[in-house]
Amino acid sequence: MLRGGVLRVSLACRGKRKLVFLRGSAYSVAMSDFPPVLKTALWMAGVRARESTKPNGLVSDPLAHVLIGQEGLEAALALEQAHPAPRALVRRMRLTDDLVLRLVKERSIQTVIMAGTGLDTRPYRLELPAALEWIELDYPVVTNWKNERLHAQQPRCTVERVGVDLSRPGAFASAVAERCKGRRSLVIMENVFHYLDLQEASTLLRDTHALGPGTLITADLPSPRFRKSHIGRRMLAEMESRKVHIGRATVANVDQFAATLQLRVLERYPIVCLNDDPHTWRNLKCPWWISKARRELLQVVVMECV
Ligand SMILES: C[S@@+](CC[C@H](N)C(=O)[O-])C[C@H]1O[C@@H](n2cnc3c(N)ncnc32)[C@H](O)[C@@H]1O
């Protein structure tokens, strides 16, 4: 932990370098100084913290509080009261939890890479095998934030954090290809596509081929209609109000998109129209009357590199 004195931190976000001077702070970046990109991660951690307090919540994340502190929690709760986060966000978190647990077991996954990991704490809160290696990728400011605040916590598997700008061609591959050589890998891209343009998102997905055929990817892919939908407008307005760079990658035809990137679609889940009653959560079927366009608004898709 870094304590006291004057500290100079170099933050690399989207190629821009920024110097931050802090006096007497316990951490290299304090809550009051965090950059816009960290606000979206804070928002998600706040959603998890709030969901964790519900008796039948879909997600339980005790470390969300550790990561954002009382100040962040209060900010997130105030925000939630003013603009409740769409339930689809919580369903996506839970769905991704379930997918990770199942795929790690069924496919004997050895390495999980979480791209745009934000303040997610799955290696601490999910029952993962101790032999698993978990690699988290995000901007250095986010990975440093987590390293400083989670150093006393015990993950269930090995965790490594790499600070990287994923919009740069080749950044993903150079961060993880060597580490994953010859290992069965799963890449999680949860809630990242909104921040990338289509070219950047495609490059990121193409880079996963460096990990070899059979590599699995879970990603939530918004359709072009998503931006105009109620949930899409709310999410994007929220990010714009926080001055977060948004790329807004959207995908009109998931199968075609995947095929052009030499990916095969294995599973898909229409996240906007899932029921979030915890008793029926495992029944992931979308009601029959929901239109195709609505099902495709925001899909969590499992793909495989071929
Ligand atoms: C909304 S948060 C989602 C975090 C996490 N996946 C979750 O659902 O809680 C989006 C994350 O993507 C990261 N991100 C966006 N663009 C990125 C880029 N070009 N390189 C690295 N990380 C990026 C942000 O820093 C942020 O932590």
How do the helices and strands line up, and which of them pair or pack?
Elements: E1 6-13, E2 16-23, H1 36-52, H2 63-82, H3 87-106, E3 111-115, H4 122-125, E4 133-138, H5 140-150, E5 158-163, H6 171-180, E6 185-189, H7 198-207, E7 216-222, H8 230-241, H9 254-260, E8 263-270, H10 292-295, E9 298-305
Parallel strand pairs: 3-4, 3-6, 4-5, 6-7
Antiparallel strand pairs: 1-2, 7-9, 8-9
Helix pairs in contact: 1-2
The chain binds S-adenosylmethionine.
Structure explained in plain terms:
This protein is of the alpha/beta class and 306 residues long. The chain has a single domain (87-305), classed as Vaccinia Virus protein VP39 (Rossmann fold, 3-Layer(aba) Sandwich), CATH 3.40.50. It has ten helices and nine strands. It has helices spanning 36-52, 63-82, 87-106, 122-125, 140-150, 171-180, 198-207, 230-241, 254-260, 292-295; strands at residues 6-13, 16-23, 111-115, 133-138, 158-163, 185-189, 216-222, 263-270, 298-305. The strands form two sheets. Strands 5-4-3-6-7-9-8 form a seven-stranded mixed beta sheet, sandwiched between helices. Strands 1-2 form a two-stranded antiparallel sheet. Strand 6 (185-189), helix 7 and strand 7 (216-222) form a beta-alpha-beta unit. Helix 1 (36-52) packs across helix 2 (63-82). The longest helix has 20 residues, at 63-82. The radius of gyration is 19 Å and the shape is globular. The structure holds S-adenosylmethionine. The site of S-adenosylmethionine has 18 residues, from helix 1.
